[in-house]
Amino acid sequence: MPNDRLLLLPTLNEEAALKALAPEIPPGYDVLVVDGGSTDGTRQVAESLGYQFIRQKFGKGKGCGVRTGMEWFLASDYRLLAMIDADYTNDPRELEGMITALGNGCDIVMGSRDKSLQIKHLGRFSLFINLSTSALTSLAYGQDLPDIQTGYWAFSRKAVETLYPHLKASGFEIEYDTVYNSWREGLRIGYRPVTFRSRLGESKFTVYLRFKQIYYGLTYVYVSLALMLKQRLNGGRKKVK
Fold it and tell me: Is residue 194 part of a domain?
């Protein structure tokens, strides 16, 4: 019987991490590598492991890779889409817990990374930004969203069908775009605690990008509050256009 679950791995020069992740991916998943222009052996490793390998569309950045992967997913017959960062920080052995949570009345599940491990591997400043933007987003949306910057996600097919036409983010702001449009379209987001590890290879997430996360968080909260006001003025409709 063909697998009905697709694991999306957005990559940019993740040859070593792909090799390390491979034995940890549980059975029952097909793997799609969406590459942003790697110059190392990422493609060769992916193909040697039997993964689907495609180049991302829409431009440069993680968001373009995620949107390309969702487009590919929707053109297939898969029932569920999971996604992890392909740098080894997320443990694919926790996928089954994410899928179980997805079946408990959620359309989307985010993996909430252990805070002490975030401090260990990313530093206190990075955790502060994540907690701050997550708290603001949770307040604006009226939901508990403890790790807005996580790279660990699981989606039902309904969620991807609903989200994909609205996603516009090209870079690391894709997580904010995902949560914002999920809230706007009335999708149910849950979360599950997950571990967090040190990445393999060089990080693409610079100090400049960390500060941009604050900007993205504030921008999406501002837009969300404006839409909530519009919603109330238009009679309290759940979904705002």
Answer: yes
- In this prediction, what percent of the chain has a pLDDT beyond 70? 91
Tell me whether strands 5-11 and 29-35 are parallel, antiparallel or unpaired.
Answer: parallel
Tokens 């992890």 sit on residue: 84
Taking residue 232's Cβ as centre, other Cβ atoms within 10 Å add up to 11
Q: What CATH number does the domain containing 95 carry?
A: 3.90.550.10
Residue 80 burial (10 A CB sphere; 0-12, 13-18, 19+): buried
What is the Cα Rg of the chain in Å?
17
Q: Are 138 and 112 in contact (CB under 8 A)?
A: no
Between 238 and 29, residue with greater pLDDT? 29
Domain extent for 58: 5-233
Q: Which residues are within 8 A (CB) of 74 and not within 5 positions of it... i.e. 6 or more apart?
A: 160, 161, 164
Residue type for 59, please?
Answer: G
3-state secondary structure of 58: coil
**How far, rounded to the nearest angstrom, does the alpha carbon of residue 98 sit from its chain's CA centroid?**
13
28: three-class secondary structure by DSSP: coil
Place of tokens 């443990």: 91
Q: Where are the beta strands (DSSP E) in the chain?
A: 5-11, 29-35, 52-55, 80-83, 108-113, 153-156, 189-194
Residues recorded for the chain: 241
pLDDT digit string (tens) for 123-170?
Answer: 898 888 888 888 888 888 888 999 999 999 999 999 999 999 999 999
Does residue 239 sit within a domain? no
First-to-final CA distance of the chain: 41
Is residue 183 domain-resident?
Answer: yes
Instruction: Count how many domains the chain has.
Output: 1
